[in-house]
UniProtKB/TrEMBL annotation:
A GO molecular-function annotation: ATP hydrolysis activity
Name of the protein described by the UniProt record: Macrolide ABC transporter ATP-binding protein
Domain ABC transporter: 4-228
One Gene Ontology cellular component annotation held by this UniProt entry: plasma membrane
PANTHER family: IMPORT ATP-BINDING PROTEIN
Family: Belongs to the ABC transporter superfamily. Macrolide exporter (TC 3.A.1.122) family.
Keyword Transport assigned: yes
Alphabetical list of Gene3D superfamilies matching this protein: P-loop containing nucleotide triphosphate hydrolases (3.40.50.300)
């Protein structure tokens, strides 16, 4: 079952009166449960495509569906609602709220959904334990290592059981050992829970673990690789 359908998506940015085509008539379908990565040099369009799928931006032409919902042309409010209920995000810079504990950062999305306190607290503790952070629930972000902060970000992305998790260069600020451990954790979550992961990355470690690699160049899909 397709969880993402992108049909003939194009995106043009204006830079000093010059038109830059970040996406050029891109079409791609992503199945539920995939572990997939978008790769390519800077300016290839991989982050733009990820942002389109995540409803952080919208195409100038074409259509995009996520979890059965047409997201092209949605109002800002409806796109925000879509992200809250259907999409989890893991960013390069972690994007944790500095004054909130690890537990509070993770449960924030459940609070926005209106989940009762006891339920969201129990769910948050369970997820933090699953990503290897049992006993660190009350630590603030600055009291955690980079790898631990990114594990909090992963827990926050999956706690609400979204249809898809989008990860933009999630290992960029981590050393190779920590990055490998984080990727193995996400592969485990993918295998055991069927969570769909889509990465945008330069990191060879991500490409090695992906079951499908989509190569982009100059805003177009150049080729694909499928692996067991």
């Amino acid at each position: 079952m397709s969880i993402v359908n992108v049909e003939n998506a194009s995106r043009i940015y204006r830079q000093d009166a010059i038109a830059v085509k970040a996406l050029d008539n891109v079409s791609v379908s992503i199945e539920a449960g995939e572990f997939i990565t978008l790769v390519g040099p800077s300016g290839s369009g991989k982050t733009t495509l990820l942002n389109q799928i995540g409803a952080l931006d919208e195409p100038d032409a074409g259509r995009i569906q996520v979890a059965g919902e047409e997201i092209t042309g949605l109002s800002r409010k409806k796109r925000t609602t879509l992200r809250l209920w259907k999409i989890g995000f893991v960013f390069q810079e972690y994007n944790l709220i500095g004054v909130l504990s690890a537990q509070e950062n993770v449960e924030y999305v459940l609070m926005l959904r209106g989940v009762p306190f006891r339920e969201r607290r129990a769910e948050t503790r369970s997820i933090l334990a699953e990503v290897g952070l049992h006993g660190m629930e009350q630590r603030l972000p600055h009291e955690l290592s980079g790898g631990q902060q990114q594990r909090v970000a992963v827990a926050r992305a999956i706690v609400s059981k979204p249809a898809i998790v989008l990860a933009d260069e999630p290992t960029a600020n981590l050393d190779s050992t920590t990055g490998a451990a984080l990727l193995d954790l996400m592969r485990k979550l993918n295998a055991e829970h069927g969570i769909t992961f889509v990465f945008s990355t330069h990191d060879p470690m991500v490409m090695e673990r992906a079951r499908r690699v989509i190569h982009l160049k100059d805003g177009r899909i150049e080729r694909e690789e499928r692996r067991q």
